């Protein structure tokens, strides 16, 4: 595979993730405007249940595939990649098939737990519909991770971040516009999955067959086995279950303890904030194989430098979005309909916590690629406990403000634990002083600039468009003038993604 550079590989992933985020926001806008806050609440409640199921049933194999294939390549070993894929696919398929049957027969009981009497029959209908797509949804994640390692960042990005979101946006737009119902929109959201599963299998077929034929060239050294793969993956599977619960538990609890309208507002607010995770995701996709290889060879100093460079870029790219949500959140939420503007305050609080998470960097990826999946699992267990306990305690009293406060506490707890483990436990140094200038630039331009626009022109879509254009232009000029100090050109030219592991 061709050698790629970190910035260029990251750019491909970033552009794909940006497209996925825009498609998700477009989908959220369509659902919000056509179905209203109440319909959006039911729709995203079903999306949350399905997302949790497919992530959990993937059994954490995406991280295992990346780590074990990268390790094989780090020591120039061949002929094991097809086996690693089999180690992942067979258990996932078996468990997902069983889960699909259980969901079909238990849909009525699960709907009774998750919804009030008024929405129970609708949610039961959605649960039965999603049971048919659980198996392809779980397998799609496994094969996409394989495409990342066997076909590279570009193929992976096109499959995961462009094809699936684009097809969902188109199909849901057509169906929701014609039928105006949450069940029809959700079923349309599911339909593209089997198609892209088949396409992904075809994409990776050639390198899998080629690796199978090279198995006779297998060289010495410790090889991947089902035992070693699942020794790593079982803690990761539980950790991923906890991550899925952490991501969606608040939405489901708010839906269960409040009205569909309030749940719809909170679901839209969190979807908007999570769109800012595109940079984190794209950087992890680009850097994870290199990080795994460096940690496998105990090159801790180089791992530290790489992490710091990436975090600086993450702040420069991510913080402007979160700062706009804080300073111009009312205008942003108007995109999804006037019913959602009331979520500005909680959204600003959540966005501020995500700025902290961005500044912490790729700590979770370092833990995983360094073989500390058990540590990460314990972290997520504590975070889930805080999330569920906090939401159950605060949502009945404070509504979505209680959910937002709980979100902030969870982010702080999760990241402080990871900081201590990566820095002290793994020896990968963190360099917070080198983050001060990258943090100051977007704060001044988009934080203070966005507040100035809101103070001067108020809330409105036109105000948002003008502010984004003007502030983005100022930001681009500022970055150009400070490119040497920020080492932007150095990142592009000097930091390679090691081609063997990409």
Walk me through what this model shows.
This protein is mainly alpha-helical. It has one domain. It is built from 21 helices and 2 strands. A two-stranded antiparallel ribbon has the order 1-2. The N and C termini lie close together (8 Å).
Attribute tags:
502 residues; mainly alpha; two-stranded antiparallel ribbon
In a nutshell, what does this entry contain?
This protein has 21 helices and two strands.
Rg, nearest Å:
22 Å
Number of domains: 1
Average pLDDT taken over every residue: 82
Strand order of the largest sheet: 1-2
Total DSSP helices: 21
Shape: globular
N to C succession of SSEs: EHHHHHHHHHHHHHHHHHHHHHE
The beta-strand count equals: 2
| Unreliable parts | 492-502
Beta percentage is under 5%
> Ends: how far apart?
8 Å
Q: What profile does the largest beta sheet have?
A: 2 strands, antiparallel
Helix content: over 70%
User: How would you classify the helix and strand content by structural class?
Assistant: mainly alpha
Layout of helices and strands:
Blueprint: E1 4-5, H1 6-57, H2 61-74, H3 81-114, H4 120-131, H5 134-150, H6 153-179, H7 182-190, H8 192-213, H9 226-257, H10 260-274, H11 278-296, H12 300-327, H13 329-334, H14 344-360, H15 363-369, H16 373-398, H17 400-425, H18 436-457, H19 461-481, H20 483-486, H21 488-494, E2 496-497
Antiparallel strand pairs: 1-2
Helix pairs in contact: 1-4, 1-5, 1-6, 1-7, 1-9, 1-10, 1-11, 2-3, 2-5, 2-9, 2-11, 3-4, 3-5, 3-9, 4-7, 5-6, 5-8, 6-7, 6-8, 9-10, 9-16, 10-14, 11-12, 11-15, 12-14, 12-18, 14-17, 15-17, 16-17, 18-19
